[in-house]
Write a structure and sequence with these properties.
The complex is a heterodimer of chains A (about 250) and B (about 160). Chain A is mainly alpha-helical and about 250 residues long. Chain A has one domain: Ferritin, core subunit, four-helix bundle (Ferritin). Helices cover about 65% and strands about 0% of the residues of chain A. Chain A is globular. Chain B has about 160 residues and is an alpha/beta fold. Chain B contains 5 helices and 9 strands. Chain B is elongated. The chains are: A mainly alpha (about 250), B alpha/beta (about 160).
Chain lengths: ~250, ~160
Amino acid sequence: MNVEAIKDLLYRIGDDDLILGHRQSEWTGIGPILEEDIAFSSMAQDEIGHAQAYYVILNELFGEPTPDQIGFGRKSDAFRSSQLVEYPIGDYAFSLMRHALYDLAESIRLEELTRSSFRPLAELAKKLLREERYHYLHATTWLKQLGRATDEANRNLQAALDFAYPIAFSLFEPTAQDAAIFADGIQAPESELETRWVEAVEALMKECGLKVPNVADKTAHYGGRQGKHTPHLEKLLAEMDEVFAIDTNAVW
Amino acid sequence: MITQDEVYEALQEVKDPEIPVISVVDLGVIRDVLIDENGAVVVQLTPTFAGCPAINHMKENIVQVLTAHGVKESRVDVMYNEPWSTNLISPRGRVLLKDFGLSPPPAFDGMLTLEVLQNAVCPKCSSNNTFLISPFGPTACRAVHHCRNCQETFEQFKPL
C-alpha cells in the first residue's frame, strides 16, 4: 500500500470539498429564493461533512493532524484543492454552473472510488455517492429549467459556462502520484476521469440548450494540486479560520 | 453484567435530536454492540449523512444512557463501512416518523433513481398525488414535497 499516494489523493478531494462547501455556505441568508438558500446551505453541510470524513481517514490511519487542524490550521500553500473551488460565489448563474460542473466530476470520481483497492476509501465512496445523487439532481434540474427558460437566463448561464468550464479542468490536474495511484488500483488516472467528465458535461449542456466552449489550454488553471492558488483562497481562509485561530486548542 | 439485548433496549432511550420521536435503534444506525468479558461495551454507530451534526450528540447520549444503566465502561465507534441506508429504518420507526408528520422514505433497491426521490406519500392524507418541491429541507435528511390532494406542504425523510 503506497501511503504517500493515498494521502495525496485524500488531501486533494478533502480540500476540494471543504473549500467548495465553505463557498456554498456563503449563500446562506442571501439565496435568490428560499429553497435555493436552503439547498446551498444543505449542500455546504454535506460537502464539509465529506471533507471531514476524508480527514478522519488521514488522521486515524495515517497519523496526520486532527480533522479540525487539517481543515482550519493550514496556510494556503498547504491546500491541495483545485482552483475552481476557491473562486468567489459571483452571481447565482456562476455558483449554479460551478456546482453542476463540480458535482458531475465528483459523482464520476466517487463512482470510480467505490472500486478502489483502498477499502476504507471504497466504503466511504459508496456512502458519499448516495448523498451526491441529491446534489446532482439539484444542479441538473435547475440547469435544464433555466437553460431553456428566457433568453436572459440562457445568456447568463452561457456566460457562466464560458467562464467556469476552462477553470474546471483544474479538478483533473494530475500530481506526481498519479501513476502510483493508478498502479496500486486506488483510482484511474486523472486524464481518464477527465474524459468521462467531458462527455457527461457535453451531454448535459446539450439538454440545457448551452454550448460547451473550446478550451485551448486546459492546464491554464493548474497549480492548486501543488499548493499554488489564486489570491481568492487566502481571503477565504482568513475568514474561515478566524474563529479557530483565536484559540486552536478550544474544546467545542 | 449487561447483555446485548439489554443494551439495545437501553438505546431505545437515545433519540435522534432532530427527530426526537425515533431512537437510534429504530433509525438503524446501530451497526453492532460488543461486550467484553469485563462488561465494557462498544457501540458501533454509522452516520445517516456524513455531515450530520447530530452524530456527536448521539455519541454522548449513548454513553450517558449506558452509564445510567450501570455500564461502567463504554465507547462509541463511528463506522463508515456498509453505509447506512433509509431501508434500515425499522417498521416501528416508519410509523413513528409518519405520526411525527414526516413522510417515511420509500424502500428502494440498489441505486437511488429520480423516480424514488420524487415519490413521497403525504403524511396527512396518505395520498400519492404529490410532487417534490426541493430535495433539501430544514435538515440534511429532509426533502420538501407538496400534496395535490390536501394541499399540505410536507417534509419527507428522504431516501438514502
